[in-house]
Amino acid sequence: MHPRLELRNICKRYPGVVANDDVSLAIQPGEIHAVLGENGAGKSTLMKIIYGAAQADSGEIFCDGNPVAAHNPATSRALGIEMVYQHFALFESVSVVENIALSASSAFHLPSLAEKIRELSLRYGMPIDPHRQVHDLSVGERQRVEIVRCLLRTPKLLILDEPTSVLTPQAVVKLFETLRQLAAEGCSIVYISHKLDEVQELCDTATVLRNGKVTGTARPKETTSLELARMMVGSKLPEMHVSPPVPSEKPVLEVTNLSVKARDHFGVDLKDVSFDVRGGEIVGLAGVSGNGQAELIALLSGERTHGRSDAIRISGTPAAGLRADERRKLGLAFVPEERLGRGAVPSHTLWENTVLTAHRSGTVRNGLVDRRKASAFAAGIIDRFKVKANGPASTAQSLSGGNLQKFIVGREIALQPKLLLVSQPTWGVDVGASAFIRQTIVDLSRAGAAVLVVSEELDELFEICDRLLVICQGRVSPPLVRKTTDREEVGLLMTGRTMSKDQMASGSGDVALQD
Amino acid sequence: MRVAAPVVASLLTLIVGSIFFASLGHDPLPTLYAFFIEPLNSLNGLSEWLLKASPLILIACGLAVGFRANVWNIGAEGQFTMGAIAASGVGLFWPNPDSVLLLPLMFIAGMGAGMAWAAIPAFLRARMNTNEILVTLMMTYIATLFLSYLVHGPWRDPAGFNYPQTALLPTAALFASFDPAYRLNPSIFITVVAVLLMWLFTDRSFLGYKMSVSGAAPLAARYAGFRESAAVWIGLLAGGAAAGIAGMAEAAGPLGQLSPQISPGYGFAAIIVAFIGRLNAFGIVLGGLLMSLLFLGGEGVQMTLGLPSALTRIFQGILLFFLLAADFFIFYRIRLIRPARDTHALETA
Amino acid sequence: MDLFIAIFTGTIIAATPLIFAALGELVVEKSGVLNLGIEGMMLMGAALAFWAVTAGYSMPAAILAGALAGAAASLLFGVLALTFLTNQYAAGLALAIFGSGVSAFLGRGFGSEPIEALHGVDFPVLSGLPLIGPLLFRFDPMVYLALAMFVAISWFLYRTKAGLVLRTIGESPQTSHAIGYPVIRIRYMAVLFGGAMAGLAGAYLSVAYTPLWVENMTAGKGWIALALVVFATWRPLRILLGAWLFGGMTILQLQGQALGLEVPSELLSALPYLATIIVLVLISRNRQMLALHFPASLAKPFRPAS
Lengths: 515, 349, 306
Prior knowledge:
The complex is a heterotrimer.
Chain A: E1 5-14, E2 17-27, E3 32-36, H1 43-51, E4 58-63, E5 66-67, H2 73-78, E6 81-84, H3 96-103, H4 110-123, H5 139-151, E7 157-161, H6 169-184, E8 188-193, H7 196-202, E9 205-210, E10 213-218, H8 225-233, E11 251-260, E12 270-278, E13 282-286, H9 293-301, E14 312-314, E15 317-318, H10 324-329, E16 332-335, H11 350-363, E17 364-365, E18 368-369, H12 371-384, H13 401-414, E19 419-423, H14 431-446, E20 450-454, H15 458-464, E21 467-472, E22 475-476, E23 480-481, H16 487-494, H17 501-507, H18 511-514
Parallel strand pairs in A: 3-8, 3-9, 6-7, 7-8, 13-20, 13-21, 16-19, 19-20
Antiparallel strand pairs in A: 1-2, 1-4, 4-5, 9-10, 11-12, 11-14, 14-15, 17-18, 21-22, 21-23
Helix pairs in contact in A: 3-4, 11-12, 11-13, 12-13, 13-14
Chain B: H1 4-23, H2 28-37, H3 43-68, H4 76-93, H5 102-128, H6 132-152, H7 187-204, H8 206-216, H9 218-224, H10 228-255, H11 266-276, H12 281-304, H13 310-348
Helix pairs in contact in B: 1-2, 1-13, 2-12, 3-7, 3-8, 3-10, 3-11, 3-12, 4-5, 4-6, 4-10, 4-11, 5-6, 5-10, 7-8, 7-12, 8-9, 11-12, 11-13, 12-13
Chain C: H1 2-30, H2 38-54, H3 59-83, H4 88-106, H5 132-136, H6 141-159, H7 161-171, H8 173-179, H9 183-209, H10 221-231, H11 236-258, H12 265-284, H13 287-293
């Protein structure tokens, strides 16, 4: 019997990088096959090639034993290959059924399509209301819409790209049940991930990628985590040095009873948020995206101000009414999650981008920009943080995501902040750079700065944070001490449940429906 | 590279112009000569060339400050009109018509009126989130009607045989020409100063830097804590001030009085000048000289060959079309695509 | 009573060019493209239609010529904005200036004589009814065409798959492209449609409303149509209502001048522009309401990733 899908010697080059180098793998019908690798290992490129969204430079693809020619997403779909993207391809302004109608080949009749959606989603244990507007849906619900959209076409092969990065641990359990049910019905599943535990729990086979090459094929349920990790990151596992925190007596950042309405109906209201961060410690804010992180971050950074000035205090000074640059005078620095267009101006050079926040560090004199100083400043950052760039005159948009992130983190740290806010520090950054950025953040805190890290990656937060907060539907939990808490507890808080006993007993069944 | 697009665009405009003239039954070469060379063939021609280029460059400098910050003041024509009205008002009604202070006062009045006219859309955009494109345009229509009202009504010259125009401004309210034979006058120095100020502001100053961040990446400006409303105010007021001053210089220069038509479309043409000049001070100088030549040529062929003056506007439009298109080939292809693809590759790898 | 009928019918007629132009622009903006050049396209339409009538073509042919002229003009914008990815503000402005120049150039030989205007329709029975007849059933066919366009566009946008595709392209061309829709081609069609509608609006001015040729005869109506789209928060019914409101303002102003009110005529003429500003301010203050139906990708250049 032919494999459902077979790749032979796939190569794909982009200018400056080899994304896939001689990759071969075979996926059997009904198999759940993991493609495991770190960020930047070439997983996403490989998936695009399978789906036809990108073309391989060389190599062959076979589907049920037949070579696939003239490959593009349309031919893939005709072959029964469907893909659930990591960043969903959904339109916010229209309803679930309209979204699905856009990619359905059937006649344009919304009522009958809505009925089909309802049926199918119930059958696979992930109910959705077809008439809701997408902007009202949580991230988990959006993922269901994406999966249902694929299932409506009864796929033979389903590709999921990092599907759990946006889910609570409890919702992950639900998703795995659905995927197992699908596999049992004969659908092959390609599961792209960098999370070992998930792959070990779910997948029958794993192909491990590193730097675009296959470094091994394994049966994850019979392989140890250590072996898999070796294949993923090579022999050298980056090590973190996290010494015990020495928190300052007085908090550097104090947030007290901060409540605010969302700016538009795509946002989330913040409800009575209180917490503090002390010098010398790292506090992490966990939560499924879209639960108020964006609003909280904007209020903390000063991108949005608040009428009650003492709702936020920095080193004791009421700061909620101050703009971002006024807060920087108090010692705040901030690394936002969007690098291009927020943390840096894409079309500007690196030296110009230093002036963005470092204009108090000598790059501006008498109201004029001092180009030489700014260039020296940028060169210093490039040097100290090992940013790969053609010097201070290269534009921000010419840098890779990881290098630009290093540059922005470097710039903010060079301001010698008393308080550093970091949002999604390592999104889309490769292993080496991630470890470097995390270590830099830890070092800054151990030198006395207060650090607040907002991240959707629980692993990251557990690795570097001293205390953890959890945000859910605009409410922030009381702090948890990292050494005395675990993923289970944080995961429950992410779904808005507290750890009280009766809720634990009665509520676990429908937790996933709530996220 | 920055120079290439305007040059290519100008050449293409010439080519299209030749085809156009040919299709109208005019031999293209002599017509082009009449359009673009003849006007500059005499001292008077040169004087007229600079005289017309001056307001275009001045206004374009002011507008470009706003355009760099994505503040779209396209109502310079109205601000120009208000500047001319206010300056003429001072010139006509100041108690002492011989005062040496008259010109400076008119300057202040013109600038102030232009700024005031631009302050309304600035306020509405900064505080009420109202689209400045539409407001500045509507304000232009209102300014034109206001001018019409004045010259038909209260300000009409009683000794003017019922023509809709004001009395002539007193001599002290006029810029004296460099030479009585030509119309070029010292107001051109205002433009020179404006160009230098604009260069200093956009290329060197921190405030100018902030505005360019607002234009290129509004979220980054908010991230840095630069006031969005400051960019709106500065952008609109700079354009308003420049246009108001240009209006004043026009009234106190070649016009000498108000009539319903005081501008051959300087306010709109200056938008094109700003783009041709790549929103850069020295580029704007070249753009203004080119645009002024289009105006002169249009007038020239109207008189010598009987071609309609609407040709000027057609050429302006074609020039801007070609410039924008040339931008694509020169900027996008060479500067953006290559690095953009690199980043793309690394992020999706 | 006669005055009432005059004001009512005058309002409907004055609103007609605005309805054409604004509905066309609505479709363009719904696809995520901002074409500021309505004024230029209207002038082209007005000039071509007027020329066709004076050249002896039939009325329908003249109006069609106006629509085609508008579409042809919009194609210039389309090439710049969609293929060359230029700044849409600049491209639209260029079109506005260019259109006014070309139309003035074409119009230099038109003279200042009015032509015979488009006739009103004579519905059997209905047009003869007292009161209702003159109020509703004696307009020229373009008035009814404008209303039919309103119904057709509302139906298209909210009841058909093609309309859904258009709206979602306006929200996120990237996503539409990823699903496999030809974003650029669809946007071209929207731009051409908007151009044809602006051309119709211009043709209506020169062959039915005035009916004569005056340089720059649109006098800002193209810009008011743009403002109407914002005023309507991108919803067809509100465009209709807004156009009637502005039509009414124009007629009241004309009536005021005819009655010899003791106000300068310039002040009355300025009213529609003032009203546009006021209406824009009132609508724009409510950001949430604006955001609800706003095409999120409006005026952002889109280039499909290879």
